[in-house]
Structures are given as C-alpha cells and as structure tokens.
Write a structure and sequence with these properties.
Elements (H helix, E strand, L loop, with lengths): L2 H17 L4 E7 L13 E4 L4 E4 L10 E4 L2 E3 L5 H6 L2 H7 L4 E7 L6 H5 L12 H15 L4 E13 L2 E4 L29 E3 L2 H17 L4 H6 L2 E12 L5 E10 L13 H25 L11 H5 L9 E8 L6 H15 L3 H6 L2
Parallel strand pairs: 1-5, 1-12, 6-11, 6-12
Antiparallel strand pairs: 2-3, 3-4, 7-8, 7-9, 7-10, 10-11
Helix pairs in contact: 1-3, 3-5, 8-10
This protein binds adenosine-5'-diphosphate.
Amino acid sequence: QSYHEVLNENRKLFNELQDLKGNIRVYCRVRPFRSYENQKQTILESIGEHGEMTVTNPTKPNDSQKSFRFNKVYGPMSTQAEVFSDTQPLIRTILDGYNVCIFAYGQTGSGKTYTMSGPDNAAKEDWGVNYRALDDLFQISEDRRSFFSYEIGVQMIEIYNEQIRDLLSSDGSQKKLGILATPQAHGLAVPDASMHPVRSTEDVIELMDIGLSNRSVSSTAMNERSSRSHSVVTIHVQGKDLKSGATSHGSLHLVDLAGSERVDRSEATGDRLKEAQHINKSLSALGDVIFSLSQKNPHVPYRNSKLTQVLQASLGGRAKTLMFVQVNPDVSSYSESLSTLKFAERVSGVELGAARSSK
Ligand code: ADP
C-alpha cells in the first residue's frame, strides 16, 4: 500500500462511518439452545431483514407477541465471523484516533463472554469480537508500517461494588483506584491503572489471562464473582504519521458487564443484596447515559455510577458505542429476556413505532 492509498482508505472509512449514522449502535444476539434446555420452546418468533425481531411466550399462547427493532439482530445460527464483520468498520477507526466502547449486556448465561471472547480455549474461527478486533488492529498497523508508527498499550480494571481495582498491577496488590474529577480526552478516568505495552494479539491475550486470574484472587468462586462485577479492558493506540509528524490517540474499551438478572430482593441478603444493588444502579446509570446520548440531550448523567465515570471520555463526543444485547432463547428465561430487550430498546432510543413512522 502506498501512503496515498492509506490516506484514501482512511477517508473512505470515515465516510462509511458517517453513513452508519449516529454514534450508538445496539446489536441483539440470541444464542442457540444449550443441550440441557427445553429445545422446543424458543421465545424467538421471527427476525426481520432490518433489525426487527419478535418474541413470544410459548407457554402462554394468549399473551401478545412483543416486537423490537435494533441496528442488527443475530439469530442462533449466526457465526462469530458474521457478528464481527459488522463490528470491523468501527475497529479500524481506532487507528485514526477514535474512541470505541463495546459492551455486552444480558443475564448470566446469555452469551456475553461467547460474543466478546468466544468459548474457552477457542480455535481461531470461534474467537469473539475481542480477539478479532485485536488481530485487526495489529494487522492494519503492520500494513501501514512504512508510513505510520503505532504504540499499543493495555489496561484492565474491575468494578465491583462501586470500587475500582487494577487487575494488572505488577505486585498483584489489586489496590483500589481513584477517579479523575475531570476526564482526559481519551481513555479511562483512572490515572493510576497500570499500562502495559503490547506488540501482538498473543501479548494481549496473555495479559487478559493474568487479569482474569487476578479477578478470582479475592473470591472463592470465580464464576460467581465475574458475573457480579464489570471488567474493562482498554487498548490504547498512539499513532504517528511518519511523513507529517501528526499524532493521534485512539482507544478501544471492551466491557464485560455484570449479569443483568434481577435478584429477588426477598431472598438476597447481606453481601448478595449489596452486590445486586450496586449492579442494578450501575447498569441503569449506563442505560441512562447511553439513552441521553442517543437523544442528544445536553445533560448526560455520567456521575451516577463508577462505570459511567470511568468511561466518560469514551462515551459521547466523537466516540462510538456498540452494545451487544444477549438473549437466552429458552422459555424459562422469558421474563428476564423481555426485560433485557426492553432495556436495550430504551437505550437505543429507537422504539418500533418511532422507527416505523420515520420511514
Ligand atoms: P455469559 O457470559 O452471558 O454468562 P456465556 O458466554 O458464558 O454467557 O454463555 C453461556 C454458555 O452458552 C456457554 O457455554 C457458551 O459457550 C454458550 N454459548 C453462548 N453463546 C453461544 C453461541 N452463539 N453459540 C454457541 N454457544 C454459545
């Protein structure tokens, strides 16, 4: 590739992105049945060509169907490659100095980790969005090597009960981190989170593994813990145009949110109740922020949770936000799935009626 080809490609990508309209995208993915589920009773009635979907409760045939509309809907047969192909244009802009935030939202077991990372020890074709995005970043930076130099660094933090911890601190101390009152132009608003330079996807995977194991140190049951906390992996990309000397700074936040399932208040007590309250509070604060952004409200309520404060600089402005909304197809999760879909509908700022009338 020549220098001009690279610049032309950048311009083309930029125009494509303008075409994607708006900075907030909501993609819904319904995972396939697991072997232990009642495979006959799916709640998914139909998926339309333009992001429409209809769900129903097969055990209550008299209940009406519910319809939703998102930027994309992926059914149970969708592949990891297919899902990533719609994410790829966003990833490329990071090298040109944009901030991108990708979230996975849904109840525990709905496929958040599968979409973001893939199954455990996944072969490359099963890789989720995270690893595919990293591979792309490194590949493009390599292709542009003669004209641009890129430095890439990684941070990883956890937010648990409204406390922030560094998952990659060198002494493994997991010290609590404070938040900057005024966010920087990019990245996380936690100045003390350690930054680790990386040169390949493998380097990042290694760091993410370390981060995940640190996440479990203070917990006896890692799965329990990881579904009750938010983890944020941040990839910083510092670019320099070798010809003009111009620099850019882009970032990618990969956010695995705590499970969104409602905890029965009458059953939860003590630590569980406290956790549940923190999770509910932060997920609804996130919903409020994304909703305000999608409505272009002048006031965006970032300050209502640590999650939104930490990501403030990367939500809004020129930043691009993508939320994967994960749905379990099984009828036993119908009410949980419905509340996930309603959350997503509100966040996307597009209600089906409104979307129809604007055609
Ligand atoms: P979560 O992170 O929301 O708790 P997981 O990603 O762990 O959920 O998914 C629960 C189970 O379902 C895992 O065993 C996962 O491998 C499987 N799974 C989720 N989504 C898919 C998919 N699209 N295709 C195949 N298996 C999936």
